[in-house]
Amino acid sequence: MTETKELVKKLADKHGRVRESLIPILQGVVQEERYISSEAMTEIARELDISAAKVYGTATFYSFLDTQPRGKYVIRVCRTISCAMKGKNLIIQELEDILKIKIGETTQNRKFSLLETNCLGWCHKGPAMLVNDEAYTELTPEKVREIINEYMIK
Amino acid sequence: MSNNFLRRVDLIFDQDCNLKDILKSTYQRANDDIINELLESGLKGRGGAGFPTALKWKFTSEQADPDKYIVCNADEGEPGTFKDREILFKVPQKVFGGMAICAKVINAKEGFLYLRGEYRFLLPELEKQLDAFHKVINEIGVNFKIKIIMGSGAYICGEESALFESMEGDRGEPRNKPPYPTVSGFRKKPTVINNVETLVYSFMIFRYGARKFKELGTADSRGSKVFSISGDTPKPGIYELELGMSVEQFVDEFGDGDTKAVQVGGASGFCVPRKKFKDTIIGFEGVPTGGSMMLFNSSRSMYNVLKNYLEFFEEESCGQCTPCRVGCQQLKLGIEAVKKGERHAAYLEQLQKLAQTMKITAKCGLGQSVANSFFSIVENFKEEMIY
Is B278 helix (H, G, I), strand (E, B) or coil? Predict the structure, then answer.
């Protein structure tokens, strides 16, 4: 059995083989494999006995259910107005400089992906970003550099 | 009622309360009695729509189906809104307490808290708090369990029927209404779905009694409310304030001295320009709000603000209905064309007609409410849309 197959089976055992388990299973796949491959989608469809098109339809609807390969650390910078007013463009510029990638891209070593996202709920402490599930607020270019340096050595 | 000053209130954050005692005494009361107390308080849903909470509970309690649910909507995603995060971080037990009281009234054995994906960092602590809550519930012999369900980054899932779809494993696409959740909600069963803040207030009403809550606010907007304040303000953050203040009072307290507009109710809310500050009440008699207040000073381009909102809606539209899917795109392209001079300023009127059509024909609140910010910004800041 491939690793993906095993993972999907394990997740289906944990969450149950019902339609309501689909999103928790997809979330579990993202957590382990950083994205939902077409192999994973086919396997989930088989385990839950629903069509692969249904799995695809649900997976592609949600912005946190990545369907293309992402890095180990996914950085999501809030682009909504309060963060924009507090200088999110400078933050993105700094991240692009440090990581040598553009928004939407992943570093060659597959360590970081850089994305923009809609409102993170830190409007009073913008600019804000998430690195995986961790929230960082009141960012400055210097602060961003420090944060990313720490992730670089992780 | 305060018309001359803005009153800070503290009903929910720092007040100690004994969860066990309040639940115990409330569980001893008759359901009608509980509903009446809530009705008496005048509490309206704090998510923005403002439906009387007591009626939602009452309608659901009247359904004969043996399976009913209470769902806490913790999928706040409105730009400018972050109050639920603070409530879940600081007083989660009171949220669970509100769910438990509702569960008694409607006779639900299961409750769900749908937490937005962006707040996953809250999960470990919430799970811990939930264990402690379940212990209390067990001690008083009540059969009720809450489960936390994680969202995956979709603004539309804050819409109640889209949230049920998501809980059931589907794309978060809103359902046709009616039937309403009180009749057919999660798993097509009668469901009460309340916002985080609504549940906290419900719980605190059973600590203080309806009267104390009712004494605050105005006839249309009872009680206090948690506001999340951002933008050009020296005091960004979370504040609990009595309802019924004017935008002017608000700006006096939170503005930076140069406030030219306040966006009340987030991207889907209303933009109030300086000349209307004095006469606009924040509440159901004026501009309703889920709590988001964004301040803009004269250094800001309202064109950029509107464009940012439209980009948000364009991306967050579920795409199911044409007025919203195509409308959001066209509004954005339209204001860009006017700004670039590719279209005459009169084109804005056509765009307003399109926004009006969206308000009437879009399937759910997302598409319908795009017109709010669009109209109020274009009307009040027309010159900024053109040059």
Answer: coil
Using DSSP's 3-state secondary structure scheme, residue A80 falls into coil
What average pLDDT does this structure show over B38-45?
A: 96
Count CA within 13 A, CB hemisphere, residue B163. 29
Chain A CB contacts of B82 below 8 Å: 121-124
| Bond prior to A127 in cis (omega within 30° of 0) | yes
B97 residue type, one letter: G
Name the minimum distance, in Å, from the CA of B305 to any CA of chain A. 7
Q: Establish, for the pair of chains A and B, how many residue pairs have beta carbons separated by less than 8 Å.
A: 116
- Split at pLDDT 50, 70, 90, the class of B4 is low
* Cα A152 → chain centroid: 17
Cβ contact (<8 Å) for B153 and A64?
A: yes
How far is the C-alpha of B193 from the C-alpha of B276, rounded, in Å? 34
3-state SS class at B16: coil
Residues composing chain B: 387
pLDDT reading at B120 higher than 90: yes
Yes or no: say if B72 and B113 are a contact pair by the CB < 8 Å rule.
Answer: yes
How far apart are the C-alpha atoms of B110 and B68, rounded to whole Å? Answer: 8
Per-residue three-class SS string for B105-126:
HHCCCEEEEEECHHHHHHHHHH
User: What is the C-alpha radius of gyration for chain B, rounded to an integer number of angstroms?
Assistant: 21
Contact B368, B384 (CB under 8 A): no
**B74 close contact with A: CB closer than 8 A:** no
Per-residue pLDDT of chain A (154 residues; tens, 9 = 90+): 799 999 999 999 999 999 999 999 999 999 999 999 999 999 999 999 999 999 999 999 999 999 999 999 999 999 999 999 999 999 999 999 999 999 999 999 999 999 999 999 999 999 999 999 999 999 999 999 999 999 999 8
Q: A121 vs B76: CB contact, 8 Å cut-off?
A: yes
Q: What is the ipTM of this complex?
A: 0.97
Instruction: Tell me how close the Cα of B167 comes to any Cα of chain A, in angstroms.
Output: 6
Q: Of B291, B293, B295, B351, which is closest to residue B327 (Cα–Cα)?
A: B351
CB contact under 8 A, A124 and B82: yes
Closest by CA position to B266, among listed B87, B85, B77: B77
Contacts of B101 (CB under 8 A, 6+ apart): B23, B26, B34, B202, B203, B206
Compute how many other C-beta atoms are within 10 angstroms of the C-beta atom of residue B68. 24
Two tokens, residue B264: 């009340």
Angle B281-B285-B286 from CA coordinates, rounded to 5° = 40
Q: Are A119 and B79 in contact (CB under 8 A)?
A: yes
Residue B299 to residue B302: CA distance in whole angstroms:
10
